[in-house]
């Protein structure tokens, strides 16, 4: 009897230690997998053309992440449909920790709200935010040919029916270039002509050339033309004035508090990406965006490097979506 009890005790102890070993093994395996990732190159998909501002931000972040992780980070441009093509590519791809989306407000939020066609992605359900890296404030510019130097003068010129209508360029459905000017036009009852472009570069080029008379652009893009007197700044589209344009009022000063047209750019993982990979990449991105090398590339000319975590990014996406839907409802009510 005592021998049988002894053998039972031994069996129970062996079973217990086997269970403990299994648990420890699982923990160690998970830690090993997290430590091992990445074992090959990573891709950041940018849903805009190469050479644009979003592409520049993505490449700056990719360089820092690559340095931290010790693996190449490739930036792949998949433009089209105001960013929807590249976004869908990532949403429908493998959530294995090797393909991520670097997108901005216009592509991931504005497109969903304002596109006349279904975009076939959900910015909340289809993605897990890694973090936001850049924030930009745009400026409303005028071509000198229309003879205005202030926003009030623009209003007077736009209301002058004895002169040709003013045209403004847009760079995507639901983008800042469209919505911000539409907001102003609706509020001040201005009759303007909308001219669509495939990207910011041709839109700004035509504005500088005088083919359109007003339009929005980041200060960094328009700075050269401004210094040469080929563009006139009238309004900053955001919460505050820019240090580089201290005499140019902000749209908030005029009473436009929602939606917030401050643009953000950030990194997103497809839903289902292993949480340990998301956590590790989040730490790396936060370290890169707080670093001097990244800030030296980004800061200035109406933009600044930010370091907002995945949770902060998720809240901002949700808040921006809600604000844009409210704004859309207001626009549609005004057309009735």
Commentary on this structure:
The chain has 336 residues and is α/β, with parallel strands linked by helices. Helix 6 (176-188) links the parallel strand 6 (167-170) and strand 7 (193-196). It folds into 2 domains: 39-135 and 262-335, Bordetella uptake gene, domain 1 (D-Maltodextrin-Binding Protein, domain 2); 138-254, Periplasmic binding protein-like II (D-Maltodextrin-Binding Protein, domain 2, 3-Layer(aba) Sandwich), CATH 3.40.190. The chain has helices at 2-36, 53-69, 84-91, 105-114, 151-159, 176-188, 200-209, 219-227, 275-289, 292-298, 310-335; strands at 42-46, 73-77, 99-104, 127-136, 138-142, 167-170, 193-196, 214-218, 232-237, 263-270, 303-309. The protein has 11 helices and 11 strands. The model is unreliable at 27-34 (pLDDT under 50). It has a 6-stranded mixed beta sheet with strand order 2-1-3-10-4-11, sandwiched between helices. Strands 8-5-9 form a 3-stranded antiparallel beta sheet, sandwiched between helices. Strands 6-7 form a two-stranded parallel ribbon. The N and C termini lie far apart (92 Å). It is elongated and about 105 Å long.
Describe the largest sheet.
6 strands, mixed
- Class inferred from helices and paired strands: alpha/beta
Global mean pLDDT: 87
Taking pLDDT < 50 over at least 5 consecutive residues as the criterion, the unreliable ranges are 27-34
Q: What is the correct CATH architecture of the largest domain? A: 3-Layer(aba) Sandwich
The number of strands is 11
Give the SSE order as H and E letters.
Answer: HEHEHEHEEHEHEHEHEEHHEH
Shape label: elongated
| Separation of the first and last Cα atoms | 92 Å
Number of helices: 11
């Amino acid at each position: 009897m005592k021998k049988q009890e002894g053998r039972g005790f031994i069996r129970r102890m062996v079973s217990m230690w086997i269970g403990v070993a299994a648990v420890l093994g699982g923990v160690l395996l998970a830690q090993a997998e997290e430590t091992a990732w990445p074992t090959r190159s990573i891709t950041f998909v940018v849903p805009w053309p190469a050479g644009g501002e979003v592409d520049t931000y993505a490449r700056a972040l990719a360089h820092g992440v690559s340095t931290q992780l010790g693996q190449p980070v490739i930036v792949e441009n998949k433009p089209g449909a105001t960013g929807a093509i590249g976004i869908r590519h990532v949403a429908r791809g493998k959530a294995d920790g090797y393909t991520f989306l670097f997108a901005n407000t216009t592509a991931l939020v504005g497109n969903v709200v304002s596109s006349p066609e279904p975009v076939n992605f959900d910015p909340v359900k289809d993605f897990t935010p890694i973090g936001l890296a850049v924030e930009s404030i745009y400026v409303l510019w005028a071509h000198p040919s229309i003879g205005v130097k202030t926003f009030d003068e623009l209003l007077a010129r736009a209301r002058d029916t004895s002169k040709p209508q003013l045209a403004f360029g847009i760079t995507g459905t639901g983008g800042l270039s469209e919505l911000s000017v539409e907001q102003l036009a609706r509020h001040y009852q201005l009759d303007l002509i909308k001219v669509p472009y495939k990207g910011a570069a041709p839109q700004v080029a035509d504005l500088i050339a005088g083919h359109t008379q007003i339009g929005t652009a980041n200060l960094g893009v328009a700075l050269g033309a401004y210094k040469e007197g080929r563009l006139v700044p009238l309004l900053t589209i955001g919460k505050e004035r820019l240090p580089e344009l201290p005499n140019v009022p902000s749209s908030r000063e005029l009473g436009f508090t929602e939606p917030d047209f401050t643009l953000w750019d950030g990194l997103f993982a497809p839903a289902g990406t292993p949480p340990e990979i998301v956590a590790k990449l989040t730490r790396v991105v936060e370290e890169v965006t707080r670093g001097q090398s990244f800030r030296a590339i980004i800061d200035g000319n109406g933009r600044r490097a930010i370091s907002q975590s995945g949770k902060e990014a998720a809240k901002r996406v949700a808040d921006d979506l809600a604000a844009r839907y409210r704004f859309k409802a207001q626009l549609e009510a005004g057309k009735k």
